[in-house]
Amino acid sequence: MPKISINIVTYNGIKYIPFCIKSIIDQNYKDFEIVVVDNNSIDGTKEYIKANYPFIKLIENKENMGFSYANNQAIQVNDSEYILITNQDIILENNFLEIIINFADNNKEYTSFGGKLKKMRADGHGQFEKLNIIDSLYLDHTLGYKFINFGEGFDDSEKFNKDIDIFGISGALVMYRRSAIEKIKHGKYEYFDNDFFMYKEDMDLAWRLQNAGYKAIYLHEAIAYHERGFIGGSNNIKDTIKRKNNDKEFLAKLSYRNHLYLLLKNLDTKELILKFPFIFYEECKKIIYYFIFKKEVLRFGIKEFKQNYKKIKNKKYENSSCS
């Protein structure tokens, strides 16, 4: 059994997947297995993987099951000690795994591990330009639980070159110790919350691990690159613009709904009382903004929250130490 299972969820990712997989295969550290779950791509992604990488374990979904469900499928494939979740639009530096694993093996108190994720962009000729701009160092939040990708948009500099304990790591690229996520999963196989579908499921898992007493760390020497590219079908410019607009509205709806799920699932009574003024302020800002500019987002979020209130509340993870 390999030490690490590297899990990739793909959806119309032919633009990225050759580069992503190559960066994994070129790693200095070799004790891993690659598992790909494809969410019904129609752009040749599945066919490319089958033709070029027969050693990859490929799960083919007949519809887009979402990021959470597909990653849960991948986690079940083996019993590896560590699980690396990576987006299809990621390129790893050759020593990424080596740095992360060396630290994890020698620091058993940590269960979530991430590195310095920088931005990259396509040059239009099948290559990617690596930028010196931060995409995400780690997940953080304000006192009112507004979540952010810390460092996003800043130029990389010496001030980011320090390993530190953190709240959690972006689901774009994060490694978990299996023993930890097994203890805080919902039911038998729900590590990421399937009700989130996609977006902020990484924040939920990070928060659940924090509530359970586990530690996460940012390792600055482990470097990778991320484009956060838009994935579509047709290359027709009108279709692309329409898809982008629809995608933004869809993500905004999921973002707001899943934010409400986050608070319901993970805030305990003591935190809510202590930080209520800050939380109230952040929530009022969201409600006012959506009411003025995006009423559909507000309607969707509140409707879904009310419909699923009991189901989500039953997944609430009470604070307790598992370390």
Sheet with the most strands, sense and barrel status: 10 strands, mixed
The helix/strand class is alpha/beta
Shape: globular
**Beta-strand proportion:** 15-25%
The topology string of helices and strands comes to: EHEHEHEEHEEEEEEHHEHHHH
Quote the distance from N terminus to C terminus: 25 Å
* Whole-number mean pLDDT: 91
Question: How big is the Rg?
Answer: 19 Å
Number of strands: 12
Number of H/I helices: 10
Indicate the percent of residues in helices. 25-40%
Low-confidence region ranges: 230-245, 318-323
Describe this protein with a few key phrases.
globular; two-stranded antiparallel ribbon; 323 residues; disordered C terminus; alpha/beta; ten-stranded mixed β-sheet; 12 strands
Protein described:
- This protein is α/β, with parallel strands linked by helices and 323 residues long.
- The protein is built from 10 helices and 12 strands.
- It has helices at 17-25, 45-52, 67-75, 96-106, 178-184, 201-211, 237-266, 269-274, 276-293, 295-313; strands at 4-10, 32-38, 57-60, 82-86, 90-92, 110-122, 128-136, 138-141, 147-150, 164-166, 173-177, 215-226.
- Helix 2 links the parallel strand 2 (32-38) and strand 3.
- The chain is globular, with a radius of gyration of 19 Å.
- The two termini are 25 Å apart.
